[in-house]
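Reply to dn_fold:

You asked what the input looked like. This is it:
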Amino acid sequence: MKKVSVTTLEKFRRYLADASPYDTKESVIDSIKGLFTGNDKTRIGSAYHKIIEGRYESMPNGSILTKADGLTFWFTEDQAAPALFYKSQHNKVVYEMPVSKVYEVPGFLPIQVVGRIDGMEGIKVRDTKTRFRHVDQSDYTESVQWKFYLDMVGERQFFYDVFEFKNFTSIQYNHQGIAALNSDVQIIAHPELSCMWDDNCYDEMIELLQMFNGFLETYGLNGFLKNADN
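and this is what came back:
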């Protein structure tokens, strides 16, 4: 049996939906092959997650240092404030929970879907997103990510916590190699966005898995999927 990540399935869904110029056939194939190794935005997102998880060092001037993806990141007091406030309001969250489930796909072999939930807060499933352009709620409500996660843990309500990074251009590095945002970057915490499980969700997931398996066969990509976890 093979496995696929929820992230790859969401990228495939966005490609089918022509969600953005970045959601191309090539980007899906790169994800399947494991060729995408990250960029400035994903690295910043990882670093900001560390603050929310409480994995950071406070400086005397109120700024924050944290480590992610092999880099040390520095955030000003104002830039770190939304993450610290969020953490203070959600202090019982269990972070980084691995999940998986085997799905029977009509016309194809069973496949294991794997993922990692950002946070479980009691029965609430949460996912923190960093955003570098205008926040479009449909990017989250139409996502297949929350549907798979809710199905895997048997819950019915999912929350996206979106932090918008305004004026971001690129990561800046000082002489010590510490990474930082350009000084005019503002980070805005948007109200939590709730997604609710309904009777159509499971059928949508299976239909997507059927199309994904067809995509694999069409482009000869089955061999790039890793074997399922035991």
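The helical segments are 6-17, 25-33, 40-52, 77-89, 138-141, 145-153, 201-218.
Hope that clears it up.
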